């Protein structure tokens, strides 16, 4: 057996609160906090309308080298590290894979994806490809990938090297246990230590932006309502009081 470490999962209340906030708002808030680009470039949504929030299980691929990897090692399935990242899966987890942007290696296929969904996994993010698209699509499992290939994971030029270690995925560092926020805008990495502040700031942003959206739809001034000008704060405060009273009734 190959032994790999598990992750430390963030508190559930953080995950639940972030489910109300989109990837764009999280990315923008992080940008103002000094995390300039938390967005993974490369993996794109494969089933539109899906959104996930969950802790990252990580899988690292490396270029094949004959003294480190041979196809013969895979005669024993338990030496396949791409299986072991799935063994750690708990409900709500997100598997994040650094496949080096490789477009000819299908990291997971039908059976691995079925197992992961059966474990309650929230979704999969790969800087690379998957295979068995017709069957995988039937699972309706949220996916963010570069694309698809008929090749299996070690058929060409990469091999799985480590599970639950720091990786780079889509140009962003991912630490095991980081919170992944993904939707139709893409995938954002949120460090757990920054999550509470992001939630606090995002809620403020969401409230005034909702007010501004109403005013802009009514033909209001862009200069006054986006971003919210100080002169419109009193108007916003009155709207917020009325809105909250309506929500309670």
UniProtKB/TrEMBL annotation:
Q: Which domain of life is it from?
A: Bacteria
Any single Pfam family the record assigns to this protein: RraA-like
* Coiled-coil portions: none
Endoplasmic reticulum found in the keyword field:
no
Cofactors (names): a divalent metal cation
InterPro entries, per the entry: RraA/RraA-like, RraA/RraA-like_sf
Q: Which UniProt keywords apply?
A: Plasmid
Entry protein name: Putative 4-hydroxy-4-methyl-2-oxoglutarate aldolase
């Amino acid at each position: 057996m190959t032994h790999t470490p598990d992750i430390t999962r963030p508190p559930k209340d953080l995950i639940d609160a972030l489910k109300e906030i989109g990837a764009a708002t999280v990315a923008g808030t992080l940008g103002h906090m000094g995390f300039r680009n938390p967005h993974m470039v490369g993996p794109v949504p494969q089933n539109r309308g899906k959104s996930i929030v969950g802790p990252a299980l990580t899988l690292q691929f490396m270029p094949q080298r004959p003294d480190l990897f041979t196809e013969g090692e895979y005669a024993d399935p338990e030496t396949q590290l791409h299986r072991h990242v799935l063994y750690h899966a708990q409900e709500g987890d997100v598997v994040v894979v650094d496949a080096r942007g490789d477009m000819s290696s299908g990291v997971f296929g039908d059976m691995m994806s079925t197992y992961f969904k059966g474990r309650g996994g929230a979704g999969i993010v790969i800087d690379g490809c998957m295979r068995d698209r017709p069957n995988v699509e039937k699972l309706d499992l949220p996916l963010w990938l570069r694309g698809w290939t008929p090749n299996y994971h070690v058929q060409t030029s990469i091999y799985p090297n480590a599970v639950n270690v720091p990786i780079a995925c889509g140009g962003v560092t991912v630490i095991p246990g980081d919170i992944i926020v993904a939707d139709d805008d893409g995938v954002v990495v949120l460090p757990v230590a920054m999550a509470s502040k992001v939630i606090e700031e995002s809620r403020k942003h969401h409230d005034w932006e909702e007010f501004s959206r109403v005013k802009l739809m009514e033909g209001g001034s862009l200069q006054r309502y986006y971003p919210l000008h100080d002169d419109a704060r009193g108007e916003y405060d009155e709207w917020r009081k009325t809105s909250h009273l309506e929500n309670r009734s």
